[in-house]
Amino acid sequence: MARGAADSYAARLRKATHRARTTLRKSGVDYFRGDGSDWIALAGLLLTVPAIAWGTILMPVWCTPAALVLPIVAGGLLLRPASLLGLYAAAALALIVESLVLGPYTEGPARVTPGTVLVVAACGFFGLLIAQFRARVGVPWRRGGTMLFDLRERIRVQSALPRLPQGWHREMALRPAGGQSFSGDFVVAARTNGGRTLEVVLTDVSGKGMDAASRALLLSGAFGGLLGSLPPHGFLPAANGYLLRQDWDEGFATSVHLVLDLDSGDYELLSAGHLPGLQLSAGTGRWEEKAAEGPLLGVYEGAQFDPVKGTLRPGDVLMLFTDGLVEANDRDIAEGMDRLTGEADRYVATGFEGAAWHLIEAVAKDVNDDRALLLIRREP
Fold it and tell me: Which Pfam families match (predicted)?
């Protein structure tokens, strides 16, 4: 019986291995690197080389030897380096044939000059660099753009705030550094406790823009999985442990965790080295800092995060933001926060509708850093 069970297990293992290999062959990486994965593109480009050479000989006015850069550039975007070398050999042969047939005394654009050879060779060199980069990444050109678009949309979807019950208004604005599509700032949010509690985590990963995008994407997925799966006070310690396990060279991040009771308006704010939140009291019209204590994420194990408590009464507003919004080389953070609250006062009468994006434009439009701003208002 034991031998039969072992044979059955081995058979299941072989089937699972076969399925895994089949899945790998269908993946984008294997499709790019596998044998014959680009033979259709290679065959098509190889056919264009003699066509261009034939056109140069018969119709020199309409087709010149420099037109060989077209299949070379296309090959750099579509082919593997090994296939690309075959295309280059065909292009070099075409130049030799054109030079022999047309002769050195041919006048006009059809003449094969040393400059033409240098242009074709330079395009081939840069095409080879592009192909080697794609081979290292393992994503074909026609799939690479789609992958980046998908990553950007995943970050955008993960940063979307859930709908709140009547009597609450929320806004989130995120602007990456340098006008890029990726940011080191991100938000994850969820309604927990049967929908009665809103939990929001605003995180600023070390670095900015594309340099921090990959880490931000990884952390946003991990933090989104932790949020709501742990008690509120357990989230930041778990996030800190996760970041420590990554062992990144730039492995730290700041984060602020808001736990808001949507029935009473009571909230707790837990911080991991993040800037304090700002609460506007509708009764006094004054802004108050809400600073919780806690170290940066990813610095040391066993970190403790002590919350600060507050209450959002009707008409009150809570702002959470990253340092790119208030920090600059020519001013300190306190001055930047004063400027932010001064601009925010302009939106008290309008109920802060559309205020998040306009506040970033007003106080940090040209700052070369990622900027994120979260607004939560309890309607009066």
Answer: SpoIIE
